[in-house]
From TrEMBL:
Gene, per the UniProt record: LOC112273343
UniProt protein name: RBR-type E3 ubiquitin transferase
GO terms of molecular function: ubiquitin protein ligase activity; zinc ion binding
Stretches assigned to the RING-type domain: 137-350, 141-185
Family affiliation: Belongs to the RBR family. Ariadne subfamily.
SMART domains per UniProt: IBR (SM00647)
Superkingdom: Eukaryota
Species, as recorded: Physcomitrium patens (Spreading-leaved earth moss)
Catalytic activity: [E2 ubiquitin-conjugating enzyme]-S-ubiquitinyl-L-cysteine + [acceptor protein]-L-lysine = [E2 ubiquitin-conjugating enzyme]-L-cysteine + [acceptor protein]-N(6)-ubiquitinyl-L-lysine
InterPro entries to which the protein is assigned, alphabetical: Ariadne, E3_UB_ligase_RBR, IBR_dom, TRIAD_supradom, Znf_RING, Znf_RING/FYVE/PHD
EC number: 2.3.2.31
């Protein structure tokens, strides 16, 4: 696998978590075997996060959570493997692994393909350089030009001796400069010999040792294509991604659910490109400019934007400009008076508007206002569902820690029989997350694709209505059974809540599937209509040509019967159902086929 883009292409269309797509890309099998031979799996107990994240409730084998201890263990295993396999020192093995981004297989391939070239590129000498200076009792350091006892002189395998003080200062500066100290070379400018970990740690202070080891630890993650740090604030876990199973949505041991590809919050079914555009728009200044254009006008003299905050049309710009003008026509106020309609109207503006003088400015202002209103519509609903999800997550935790025991005592039910309540809250949390991102999807859905937009808004509305029914039942109806005595209606409540959970899950499965397919099912009726119209046109032309129209009618009828054999349109929601999926009931609205 040459790049993350190739891995992303191989993973397009797969799914994970609560909504499972069992189709897998055939190319993913080939990509999965790349660079995997040298890496071992580490198990992860999901019991700590299953109760909080619905997407983690199903077994996931496409990622592994790594603690700092796990990372160091993997580094030690990789160094040991290279040391034994290539018969080199651990320090040299570490240099090789850092150069080849901790890929054991890559080190082996390159080493046995051309050992000399690899040694030259990483700065490893095959044999230590011999020097007559080793017989001297004193030496002059070529950096500070002071004479030191030979015991105070140090040199890497290249044989360039410098005093320990100069070496310490050289390495200290490199460590403070950042992770580049991991590829440190000899202090002699003409030499490219690598400085090993053993020499670095033997010369620097404890603080510098800790910094160096921290850089070394982080290099395993930051240089490795398959490992990334969890983006949650304060989290020190890393996540290793294994191509071949599941989607990009991962859940860390800290409980944070994120997308492997873009490292943003998990956003299925919306793709990473849409998420990045949406987040950038939320943070950009473009909406501020749209607000200025929609709600202010520039001063005719100094061009500063002015917001009208009173009823009078007589506007005075702030100092030092102090220009007085009419809000309607932007003309000088000295030209206005009783003859122009008084202080609250300006017929000159209406006349100019009819003549087209202000058409362009008004058009731009109207476009900015419409754009701002449209963005506000989607952003408010996106943010509202995020806050609702956060509240639902808090309610879920309260239910698990406090309320479930109380409900068990009140209704004389074992906790194991109350799992349907927890399942309902888990479904609510996950559906709020999905619903939130559908508004980002809707914002970027092209305006000219009216059929797709209608189908999207219908599917989104049905899913949202189902979610609201479930949320209300779990949040309000449950309160009746938390206090007082056991009631016989609790079993009815159990049936109702479990049924709403199942129905809501189905609604969102259909919504997610449709969005991940880019609403491609909407194009099927269009294709069928085009085929039908073309066959009708063909039959009509044959009739005019003197041939019997009956024959053309049979041809058209045959075409339509072929289409009906594979697809049928629901009269309630207009969804194009496939006969392979369901020939009796609509998979979207569950209405029977007429």
């Amino acid at each position: 696998m040459e790049s993350e883009d190739e891995m992303q292409d191989a993973w397009a269309g797969t799914s994970d978590g609560e909504f499972v797509n069992e189709e897998e890309d055939e190319e993913s099998d080939a990509l999965a075997s790349d660079d995997d031979n040298d890496e071992s799996d580490y198990g992860f107990d999901y019991s700590n996060v299953d109760d909080l994240h619905p997407s983690s409730r199903l077994p996931q084998t496409n990622f592994t959570i790594l603690s700092e201890k796990d990372i160091r263990q993997r580094q030690d295993e990789a160094v040991s493997t290279i040391t034994n396999f290539l018969s080199i020192s651990p320090a040299d093995a570490g240099v090789l692994l850092r150069h080849f981004k901790w890929s054991v297989s890559k080190v082996n391939d390159e080493w046995f393909a051309d050992e000399e070239r690899v040694r030259a590129s990483v700065g490893l000498l095959e044999k230590p350089a011999t020097s007559k200076r080793q017989t001297q009792t004193e030496m002059t350091c070529e950096i500070c030009f002071e004479v030191h006892p030979f015991e105070k002189m140090r040199a890497p395998r290249c044989g360039h001796y410098f005093c320990e003080t100069c070496w310490t200062g050289y390495i200290h500066t490199a460590i403070n400069d950042g992770p580049g100290c991991l590829t440190l070379r000899c202090a002699d400018p003409s030499c490219g010999s690598a400085i090993g970990e053993d020499m670095v740690l033997s010369l620097v202070s404890t603080d510098d040792q800790q910094k160096y080891m921290r850089y070394l630890l982080r290099s395993y993650v930051e240089d490795n294509r398959k490992v990334k740090w969890c983006p949650a604030p304060g989290c020190e876990y890393a996540v290793e991604f294994q191509p071949g199973v599941g989607s990009y949505d991962l859940v860390c041991k800290c409980g944070f659910n994120f997308c492997w590809n873009c490292r943003e919050e998990a956003h299925r079914p919306v793709d990473c490109e849409t998420v990045n555009k949406w987040i950038l728009k939320n943070c950009a200044e473009s909406e501020n400019m749209n607000w200025i254009l929609a709600n202010s006008k520039p001063c005719p003299k100094c061009k500063r934007p002015i917001e009208k905050n009173q009823g009078c049309m007589h506007i005075t710009c702030t100092p030092p400009c102090k220009f007085e003008f009419c809000w309607l026509c932007l003309g000088a106020w000295t030209d206005h008076g009783e003859r122009t309609g008084g202080f609250y109207a300006c017929n000159r503006y209406e006349t100019a508007k009819q003549e087209g003088v202000y058409d362009e400015a008004e058009r731009r202002r109207e476009m900015a206002k419409n754009s701002l209103e449209r963005y506000t519509h989607y952003y408010e609903r996106w943010a509202t569902n995020e806050s609702s999800r956060a509240k639902a997550l808090a309610d879920l935790q309260d239910m698990q820690n406090v309320q479930i025991e109380k409900l068990s005592v009140t209704q004389c039910q074992p906790v194991s029989q109350l799992k349907f309540v927890t399942d309902a809250w888990l479904q609510i949390v996950e559906c709020r997350r999905v619903l939130k991102w559908t508004y980002a999807y809707g914002y970027y859905l092209p305006e000219n694709e009216h059929t797709k937009r209608q189908f999207f808004e219908y599917s989104q509305g049905e899913a949202e209505a189902g979610l609201e029914r479930l949320h209300q039942c779990a949040e309000k109806d449950l309160l009746t059974f938390l206090g007082g005595t056991p009631t016989s209606s609790f079993n009815d409540f159990r049936t109702k809540l479990a049924g709403l959970t199942s129905v809501t899950k189905t609604y969102f499965e259909n919504l997610v599937r449709a969005l991940e397919n880019n609403l491609s099912d909407v194009d099927i009726p269009k294709a069928a209509a085009k085929s039908s119209s073309s066959s009708k046109a063909s039959g009509s032309s044959k009739g005019r040509g003197g041939r019997p129209k009956v024959g053309s009618s049979k041809s058209g009828g045959s075409s339509r019967s072929g289409e009906e054999s594979t697809h049928w349109s629901c009269e309630h929601c207009t969804y194009a159902n496939t006969t392979a999926a369901s020939s009796i009931v609509c998979v979207i609205c569950n209405h029977a086929r007429s």
